[in-house]
Protein backbone atom coordinates (compact mmCIF):
# COMPACT_ATOMS: atom_id res chain seq x y z
CA UNK A 1 0.00 0.00 0.00
CA UNK A 2 1.04 3.61 -0.61
CA UNK A 3 0.10 6.78 1.25
CA UNK A 4 0.36 10.36 -0.02
CA UNK A 5 0.27 13.05 2.68
CA UNK A 6 -1.11 16.52 1.85
CA UNK A 7 -0.53 19.40 4.28
CA UNK A 8 -1.05 23.13 3.91
CA UNK A 9 1.22 25.02 6.27
CA UNK A 10 4.49 24.85 8.17
CA UNK A 11 2.81 23.74 11.40
CA UNK A 12 0.75 21.18 9.51
CA UNK A 13 3.92 19.86 7.87
CA UNK A 14 5.43 19.22 11.30
CA UNK A 15 2.31 17.46 12.55
CA UNK A 16 2.08 15.35 9.40
CA UNK A 17 5.77 14.50 9.60
CA UNK A 18 5.33 13.27 13.18
CA UNK A 19 2.60 10.88 12.01
CA UNK A 20 4.67 9.69 9.04
CA UNK A 21 7.70 9.17 11.28
CA UNK A 22 5.57 6.93 13.49
CA UNK A 23 4.49 5.01 10.37
CA UNK A 24 8.13 4.66 9.35
CA UNK A 25 8.86 3.11 12.72
CA UNK A 26 5.96 0.68 12.34
CA UNK A 27 5.71 -2.31 10.06
CA UNK A 28 7.20 -0.48 7.08
CA UNK A 29 4.60 -1.98 4.73
CA UNK A 30 3.25 1.40 3.62
CA UNK A 31 5.10 3.45 1.01
CA UNK A 32 5.13 7.10 2.05
CA UNK A 33 5.21 10.26 -0.05
CA UNK A 34 4.23 13.85 0.72
CA UNK A 35 3.05 16.97 -1.04
CA UNK A 36 3.34 20.18 1.00
CA UNK A 37 0.77 22.54 -0.48
CA UNK A 38 2.53 25.56 1.08
CA UNK A 39 6.29 25.91 1.39
CA UNK A 40 9.14 23.53 0.67
CA UNK A 41 8.28 20.68 3.04
CA UNK A 42 11.49 20.70 5.07
CA UNK A 43 9.88 18.59 7.79
CA UNK A 44 9.41 15.79 5.26
CA UNK A 45 12.88 16.21 3.78
CA UNK A 46 14.37 15.77 7.26
CA UNK A 47 12.78 12.31 7.39
CA UNK A 48 13.86 11.36 3.89
CA UNK A 49 10.25 11.18 2.66
CA UNK A 50 10.01 11.77 -1.10
CA UNK A 51 8.10 14.86 -2.21
CA UNK A 52 5.57 14.66 -5.01
CA UNK A 53 4.88 17.39 -7.50
CA UNK A 54 5.74 21.10 -7.48
CA UNK A 55 6.41 22.99 -4.25
CA UNK A 56 6.80 26.73 -3.76
CA UNK A 57 7.02 29.22 -0.92
CA UNK A 58 4.00 31.54 -0.86
CA UNK A 59 4.13 35.08 0.64
CA UNK A 60 1.36 34.33 3.14
CA UNK A 61 2.91 31.11 4.42
CA UNK A 62 -0.59 29.63 4.30
CA UNK A 63 -2.36 32.33 6.33
CA UNK A 64 -4.62 33.66 3.57
CA UNK A 65 -7.70 33.15 5.75
CA UNK A 66 -6.52 35.89 8.10
CA UNK A 67 -6.18 38.62 5.48
CA UNK A 68 -7.57 38.87 1.95
CA UNK A 69 -4.52 40.93 0.99
CA UNK A 70 -2.34 37.88 1.64
CA UNK A 71 -4.48 35.85 -0.76
CA UNK A 72 -3.93 38.54 -3.40
CA UNK A 73 -0.16 38.32 -2.86
CA UNK A 74 -0.26 34.55 -3.20
CA UNK A 75 -2.28 34.73 -6.42
CA UNK A 76 0.22 37.19 -7.87
CA UNK A 77 3.04 34.83 -6.84
CA UNK A 78 1.47 31.99 -8.84
CA UNK A 79 -0.87 30.28 -6.35
CA UNK A 80 -3.47 29.31 -8.95
CA UNK A 81 -0.91 27.79 -11.31
CA UNK A 82 0.79 25.98 -8.42
CA UNK A 83 -2.52 24.59 -7.14
CA UNK A 84 -3.48 23.34 -10.60
CA UNK A 85 -0.13 21.60 -11.05
CA UNK A 86 -0.39 20.05 -7.58
CA UNK A 87 -3.90 18.82 -8.37
CA UNK A 88 -2.62 17.20 -11.57
CA UNK A 89 0.24 15.56 -9.64
CA UNK A 90 -2.19 14.11 -7.07
CA UNK A 91 -4.47 12.69 -9.76
CA UNK A 92 -1.53 11.19 -11.64
CA UNK A 93 -0.17 9.62 -8.45
CA UNK A 94 -3.52 7.94 -7.72
CA UNK A 95 -3.89 6.83 -11.35
CA UNK A 96 -0.65 4.83 -11.21
CA UNK A 97 -2.02 2.39 -8.63
CA UNK A 98 -5.65 3.25 -7.78
CA UNK A 99 -6.27 0.06 -5.78
CA UNK A 100 -3.28 0.65 -3.52
CA UNK A 101 -3.44 4.43 -3.02
CA UNK A 102 -4.59 6.36 0.05
CA UNK A 103 -4.47 10.09 0.78
CA UNK A 104 -3.75 11.53 4.23
CA UNK A 105 -4.97 15.15 4.47
CA UNK A 106 -3.56 17.24 7.32
CA UNK A 107 -4.87 20.73 8.05
CA UNK A 108 -8.13 22.26 6.92
CA UNK A 109 -10.65 22.01 4.10
CA UNK A 110 -8.19 22.56 1.23
CA UNK A 111 -6.18 19.32 1.60
CA UNK A 112 -9.43 17.57 2.59
CA UNK A 113 -11.08 18.76 -0.63
CA UNK A 114 -8.11 17.66 -2.72
CA UNK A 115 -8.16 14.26 -1.02
CA UNK A 116 -11.87 13.83 -1.79
CA UNK A 117 -11.39 14.96 -5.39
CA UNK A 118 -8.54 12.54 -5.97
CA UNK A 119 -10.94 9.61 -6.18
CA UNK A 120 -8.86 7.61 -3.69
CA UNK A 121 -9.80 6.58 -0.16
CA UNK A 122 -8.63 9.25 2.28
CA UNK A 123 -8.01 10.03 5.94
CA UNK A 124 -8.13 13.44 7.60
CA UNK A 125 -6.15 14.87 10.52
CA UNK A 126 -8.16 17.98 11.43
CA UNK A 127 -5.56 20.24 13.02
CA UNK A 128 -7.14 23.59 12.16
CA UNK A 129 -10.51 23.24 13.92
CA UNK A 130 -11.55 22.81 17.53
CA UNK A 131 -14.84 23.26 19.32
CA UNK A 132 -12.94 25.38 21.83
CA UNK A 133 -13.07 28.21 19.29
CA UNK A 134 -16.83 28.50 19.88
CA UNK A 135 -17.58 26.74 23.18
CA UNK A 136 -16.07 25.20 26.28
CA UNK A 137 -17.27 22.53 28.68
CA UNK A 138 -19.82 24.97 30.15
CA UNK A 139 -21.46 25.78 26.81
CA UNK A 140 -21.24 28.24 23.87
CA UNK A 141 -18.93 31.24 24.16
CA UNK A 142 -20.21 34.79 23.78
CA UNK A 143 -19.95 35.84 20.12
CA UNK A 144 -19.05 39.47 19.58
CA UNK A 145 -17.79 39.51 15.99
CA UNK A 146 -19.29 38.39 12.69
CA UNK A 147 -16.64 35.75 11.99
CA UNK A 148 -17.33 34.12 15.37
CA UNK A 149 -20.93 33.56 14.26
CA UNK A 150 -19.68 31.96 11.04
CA UNK A 151 -17.27 29.71 12.96
CA UNK A 152 -20.02 28.38 15.19
CA UNK A 153 -22.69 27.89 12.54
CA UNK A 154 -24.66 24.65 12.94
CA UNK A 155 -24.05 21.77 15.32
CA UNK A 156 -20.25 21.89 15.13
CA UNK A 157 -17.36 24.25 14.50
CA UNK A 158 -16.91 22.31 11.27
CA UNK A 159 -19.05 23.78 8.50
CA UNK A 160 -21.72 21.58 6.80
CA UNK A 161 -19.57 21.07 3.69
CA UNK A 162 -16.62 19.98 5.85
CA UNK A 163 -18.82 17.51 7.72
CA UNK A 164 -20.10 16.23 4.35
CA UNK A 165 -16.55 15.55 3.16
CA UNK A 166 -15.71 13.80 6.44
CA UNK A 167 -18.80 11.58 6.27
CA UNK A 168 -18.18 10.17 2.78
CA UNK A 169 -17.64 6.44 2.43
CA UNK A 170 -14.16 7.00 0.99
CA UNK A 171 -13.17 8.93 4.13
CA UNK A 172 -11.82 6.03 6.17
CA UNK A 173 -10.90 7.97 9.33
CA UNK A 174 -11.10 11.45 10.87
CA UNK A 175 -8.72 12.44 13.69
CA UNK A 176 -9.50 15.46 15.86
CA UNK A 177 -7.33 17.31 18.34
CA UNK A 178 -9.43 17.17 21.53
CA UNK A 179 -12.27 15.30 23.20
CA UNK A 180 -14.69 18.24 23.12
CA UNK A 181 -14.45 18.35 19.32
CA UNK A 182 -14.81 14.58 19.05
CA UNK A 183 -18.03 14.65 21.05
CA UNK A 184 -19.61 17.39 18.95
CA UNK A 185 -18.72 15.69 15.65
CA UNK A 186 -20.12 12.39 16.87
CA UNK A 187 -23.39 14.18 17.60
CA UNK A 188 -23.26 15.55 14.03
CA UNK A 189 -23.10 11.98 12.66
CA UNK A 190 -19.38 12.08 11.84
CA UNK A 191 -17.40 9.18 13.27
CA UNK A 192 -14.03 10.34 14.61
CA UNK A 193 -10.94 9.02 16.38
CA UNK A 194 -9.95 10.93 19.52
CA UNK A 195 -6.23 10.15 19.52
CA UNK A 196 -5.02 13.48 20.87
CA UNK A 197 -2.98 16.32 19.44
CA UNK A 198 0.37 15.56 17.74
CA UNK A 199 1.54 19.08 18.60
CA UNK A 200 2.42 17.75 22.05
CA UNK A 201 4.70 15.00 20.69
CA UNK A 202 8.50 15.17 20.72
CA UNK A 203 8.65 17.82 23.45
CA UNK A 204 10.64 15.92 26.06
CA UNK A 205 13.58 17.87 27.56
CA UNK A 206 16.76 17.46 25.54
CA UNK A 207 19.36 18.40 28.16
CA UNK A 208 20.86 21.03 25.84
CA UNK A 209 20.24 23.98 28.16
CA UNK A 210 21.37 23.98 31.78
CA UNK A 211 18.84 26.18 33.55
CA UNK A 212 20.03 25.38 37.06
CA UNK A 213 21.82 28.72 37.40
CA UNK A 214 18.49 30.55 37.10
CA UNK A 215 16.43 28.10 39.16
CA UNK A 216 15.43 30.83 41.62
CA UNK A 217 14.54 33.33 38.89
CA UNK A 218 11.19 34.02 37.27
CA UNK A 219 11.80 32.41 33.87
CA UNK A 220 9.84 33.94 31.00
CA UNK A 221 9.98 32.40 27.53
CA UNK A 222 9.75 34.91 24.67
CA UNK A 223 8.24 33.50 21.47
CA UNK A 224 8.22 35.92 18.52
CA UNK A 225 7.20 33.29 15.95
CA UNK A 226 9.14 31.82 13.05
CA UNK A 227 8.04 33.50 9.81
CA UNK A 228 10.21 36.15 8.20
CA UNK A 229 9.91 39.11 8.01
CA UNK A 230 6.95 39.15 10.43
CA UNK A 231 9.00 37.68 13.26
CA UNK A 232 11.21 40.78 13.47
CA UNK A 233 8.21 43.06 13.90
CA UNK A 234 6.86 40.72 16.56
CA UNK A 235 10.19 40.88 18.36
CA UNK A 236 9.99 44.67 18.48
CA UNK A 237 6.52 44.37 20.06
CA UNK A 238 7.83 41.92 22.68
CA UNK A 239 10.73 44.21 23.61
CA UNK A 240 8.20 47.00 24.21
CA UNK A 241 6.46 44.74 26.74
CA UNK A 242 9.51 44.00 28.89
CA UNK A 243 9.73 47.27 30.88
CA UNK A 244 6.19 46.81 32.19
CA UNK A 245 6.97 43.19 33.07
CA UNK A 246 10.00 44.24 35.12
CA UNK A 247 7.94 46.93 36.86
CA UNK A 248 5.48 44.21 37.93
CA UNK A 249 8.25 42.23 39.69
CA UNK A 250 10.71 44.94 40.86
CA UNK A 251 12.49 42.87 43.49
CA UNK A 252 12.68 39.53 41.71
CA UNK A 253 15.40 37.95 39.61
CA UNK A 254 14.12 37.56 36.04
CA UNK A 255 15.50 35.37 33.23
CA UNK A 256 14.09 36.07 29.76
CA UNK A 257 14.71 33.26 27.26
CA UNK A 258 14.06 34.24 23.65
CA UNK A 259 13.58 31.12 21.53
CA UNK A 260 14.65 31.73 17.92
CA UNK A 261 13.48 29.35 15.21
CA UNK A 262 16.16 27.62 13.09
CA UNK A 263 17.30 29.75 10.18
CA UNK A 264 16.57 33.11 11.80
CA UNK A 265 19.38 35.66 12.02
CA UNK A 266 20.19 36.04 15.73
CA UNK A 267 22.14 39.23 15.06
CA UNK A 268 18.98 41.01 13.91
CA UNK A 269 17.36 40.17 17.26
CA UNK A 270 20.50 41.14 19.17
CA UNK A 271 20.69 44.51 17.40
CA UNK A 272 17.12 45.28 18.46
CA UNK A 273 17.98 44.41 22.07
CA UNK A 274 21.06 46.63 22.03
CA UNK A 275 18.99 49.46 20.56
CA UNK A 276 16.79 49.27 23.66
CA UNK A 277 19.84 49.90 25.85
CA UNK A 278 20.44 46.38 27.15
CA UNK A 279 24.17 45.88 27.87
CA UNK A 280 25.80 42.56 26.84
CA UNK A 281 26.80 40.03 29.47
CA UNK A 282 28.29 36.50 29.43
CA UNK A 283 25.68 33.77 29.04
CA UNK A 284 25.03 31.56 32.06
CA UNK A 285 23.28 28.84 30.02
CA UNK A 286 25.75 26.01 29.52
CA UNK A 287 25.67 24.52 26.05
CA UNK A 288 23.93 27.47 24.40
CA UNK A 289 25.83 29.72 21.99
CA UNK A 290 23.19 32.48 22.08
CA UNK A 291 23.81 36.11 22.88
CA UNK A 292 23.01 37.36 26.37
CA UNK A 293 22.20 40.81 27.77
CA UNK A 294 21.17 42.23 31.11
CA UNK A 295 21.87 44.13 34.29
CA UNK A 296 21.63 43.21 37.96
CA UNK A 297 19.27 40.29 38.44
CA UNK A 298 17.73 40.64 34.96
CA UNK A 299 19.04 38.63 32.00
CA UNK A 300 17.81 38.26 28.42
CA UNK A 301 19.34 35.38 26.44
CA UNK A 302 18.78 34.53 22.78
CA UNK A 303 18.67 30.77 22.35
CA UNK A 304 18.74 28.88 19.08
CA UNK A 305 19.02 25.41 20.62
CA UNK A 306 17.26 23.58 23.42
CA UNK A 307 13.71 24.74 22.63
CA UNK A 308 12.20 21.80 24.53
CA UNK A 309 14.33 22.58 27.59
CA UNK A 310 13.13 26.18 27.49
CA UNK A 311 9.48 25.08 27.19
CA UNK A 312 9.74 22.90 30.29
CA UNK A 313 11.91 25.32 32.25
CA UNK A 314 9.81 28.44 31.72
CA UNK A 315 7.31 29.64 34.29
CA UNK A 316 5.28 31.46 31.65
CA UNK A 317 5.55 32.92 28.18
CA UNK A 318 5.15 36.16 26.27
CA UNK A 319 4.25 34.94 22.81
CA UNK A 320 3.27 36.11 19.35
CA UNK A 321 3.43 32.63 17.86
CA UNK A 322 1.12 29.86 16.74
CA UNK A 323 2.22 26.29 17.40
CA UNK A 324 4.83 27.20 20.04
CA UNK A 325 2.20 29.05 22.08
CA UNK A 326 -0.10 26.04 22.02
CA UNK A 327 2.74 23.75 23.10
CA UNK A 328 3.65 25.99 26.03
CA UNK A 329 0.00 26.08 27.11
CA UNK A 330 -0.19 22.30 26.73
CA UNK A 331 2.59 21.99 29.30
CA UNK A 332 0.44 23.90 31.78
CA UNK A 333 2.09 27.32 31.43
CA UNK A 334 0.28 30.67 31.14
CA UNK A 335 0.95 32.91 28.15
CA UNK A 336 0.63 36.68 27.81
CA UNK A 337 -0.03 37.89 24.29
CA UNK A 338 -1.06 40.94 22.26
CA UNK A 339 -1.65 41.60 18.54
CA UNK A 340 1.28 41.85 16.15
CA UNK A 341 1.48 43.44 12.72
CA UNK A 342 0.62 40.26 10.77
CA UNK A 343 0.06 38.68 8.35
CA UNK A 344 -0.26 35.76 10.79
CA UNK A 345 -0.36 37.25 14.26
CA UNK A 346 -3.04 39.90 13.79
CA UNK A 347 -5.61 41.05 16.34
CA UNK A 348 -8.05 38.55 14.86
CA UNK A 349 -5.56 35.68 15.14
CA UNK A 350 -4.73 36.60 18.73
CA UNK A 351 -8.40 36.73 19.67
CA UNK A 352 -9.08 33.37 18.02
CA UNK A 353 -6.08 31.83 19.76
CA UNK A 354 -7.34 33.11 23.10
CA UNK A 355 -10.70 31.42 22.53
CA UNK A 356 -8.96 28.19 21.53
CA UNK A 357 -6.72 28.10 24.60
CA UNK A 358 -9.07 29.71 27.11
CA UNK A 359 -7.81 30.99 30.48
CA UNK A 360 -4.24 29.92 29.72
CA UNK A 361 -3.86 32.92 27.40
CA UNK A 362 -4.02 36.45 28.83
CA UNK A 363 -4.71 38.68 25.82
CA UNK A 364 -4.03 42.41 26.23
CA UNK A 365 -4.45 45.20 23.70
CA UNK A 366 -0.91 46.59 23.79
CA UNK A 367 2.56 45.32 24.74
CA UNK A 368 2.82 47.88 27.53
CA UNK A 369 -0.07 46.13 29.34
CA UNK A 370 1.84 42.84 29.71
CA UNK A 371 3.08 43.77 33.20
CA UNK A 372 -0.44 44.22 34.49
CA UNK A 373 -1.41 40.79 33.17
CA UNK A 374 1.66 39.24 34.82
CA UNK A 375 0.83 40.84 38.17
CA UNK A 376 -2.70 39.42 38.01
CA UNK A 377 -1.31 35.94 37.37
CA UNK A 378 1.27 36.06 40.17
CA UNK A 379 -1.20 37.08 42.85
CA UNK A 380 -3.69 34.35 41.95
CA UNK A 381 -2.27 30.85 42.67
CA UNK A 382 -5.69 29.23 42.18
CA UNK A 383 -5.78 30.64 38.64
CA UNK A 384 -2.30 29.28 37.93
CA UNK A 385 -3.42 25.83 39.07
CA UNK A 386 -6.52 26.02 36.86
CA UNK A 387 -4.33 27.09 33.93
CA UNK A 388 -2.18 23.98 34.38
CA UNK A 389 -5.23 21.73 34.25
CA UNK A 390 -6.74 23.65 31.34
CA UNK A 391 -3.63 23.23 29.19
CA UNK A 392 -3.61 19.47 29.49
CA UNK A 393 -7.34 19.25 28.81
CA UNK A 394 -7.20 21.39 25.67
CA UNK A 395 -3.92 20.13 24.20
CA UNK A 396 -3.77 16.52 25.41
CA UNK A 397 -0.79 14.34 26.25
CA UNK A 398 2.17 13.15 24.24
CA UNK A 399 1.93 10.14 21.92
CA UNK A 400 -0.87 11.25 19.60
CA UNK A 401 1.16 10.78 16.42
CA UNK A 402 1.87 7.17 17.35
CA UNK A 403 -1.78 6.52 18.15
CA UNK A 404 -2.89 8.04 14.84
CA UNK A 405 -0.29 6.03 12.94
CA UNK A 406 -1.48 2.85 14.62
CA UNK A 407 -5.05 3.44 13.42
CA UNK A 408 -3.87 4.29 9.90
CA UNK A 409 -1.75 1.17 9.71
CA UNK A 410 -4.66 -0.98 10.88
CA UNK A 411 -6.98 0.53 8.27
CA UNK A 412 -4.79 0.43 5.18
CA UNK A 413 -2.10 -2.19 5.67
CA UNK A 414 -2.37 -5.12 3.21
Tally of structural domains: 2
Main structural class: alpha/beta
Basic shape: globular
If helices are DSSP runs of H or I spanning 4 or more residues, what is the number of helices? 16
The largest beta-sheet arranges its strands as 10-11-9-8-12-13-14
SSE order: EHEHHHEHEEEHHEHEHEHEEHEHEHEHHH
The radius of gyration is 22 Å
Describe the sheet with the most strands. Answer: 7 strands, mixed
Tell me which CATH architecture of the largest domain applies here: 3-Layer(aba) Sandwich
Beta-strand percentage? 15-25%
Query: What is the residue-averaged pLDDT?
Result: 90
Spans of at least 5 consecutive residues whose pLDDT stays below 50 are none
What do we call the CATH topology of the largest domain? Rossmann fold
CATH class of the largest domain: Alpha Beta
Quick one: CATH superfamily of the largest domain? Answer: Glycogen Phosphorylase B
What structural keywords apply?
seven-stranded mixed β-sheet, 2 domains, 414 residues, Rossmann fold, alpha/beta
Task: Characterize the structure shown.
This protein is α/β, with parallel strands linked by helices. The protein has two domains: 2-202 and 398-412, Rossmann fold (3-Layer(aba) Sandwich); 212-395, Glycogen Phosphorylase B (Rossmann fold), CATH 3.40.50. 41% of the residues lie in helices and 16% in strands. The protein has 16 helices and 14 strands. The chain has helices at 10-24, 42-46, 68-76, 79-96, 109-117, 146-151, 160-166, 179-187, 230-248, 266-275, 307-313, 323-330, 347-357, 370-378, 381-395, 400-412, and strands at 2-7, 31-36, 101-106, 122-126, 135-136, 139-140, 171-176, 218-223, 254-259, 292-295, 298-303, 316-319, 335-337, 361-363. The strands form three sheets. It has a seven-stranded mixed β-sheet with strand order 10-11-9-8-12-13-14, sandwiched between helices. Strands 2-1-3-4-7 form a five-stranded parallel β-sheet, sandwiched between helices. The longest helix has 19 residues, at 230-248. The model has no long low-confidence stretch (mean pLDDT 90).
Amino acid sequence: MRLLCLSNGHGEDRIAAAVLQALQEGSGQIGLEALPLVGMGQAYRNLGIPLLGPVQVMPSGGFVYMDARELTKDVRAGLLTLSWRQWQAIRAWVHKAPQQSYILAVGDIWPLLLAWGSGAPYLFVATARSEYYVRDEAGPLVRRRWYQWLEGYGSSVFQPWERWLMSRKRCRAVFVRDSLTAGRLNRAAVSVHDCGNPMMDNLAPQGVLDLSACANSLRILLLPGSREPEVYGNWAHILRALPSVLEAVPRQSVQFLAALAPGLDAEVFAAAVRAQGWPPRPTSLAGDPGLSFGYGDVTLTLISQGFNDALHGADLGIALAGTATEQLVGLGKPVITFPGAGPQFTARFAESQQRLLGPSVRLVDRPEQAGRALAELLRNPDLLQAIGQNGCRRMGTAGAAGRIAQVIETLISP
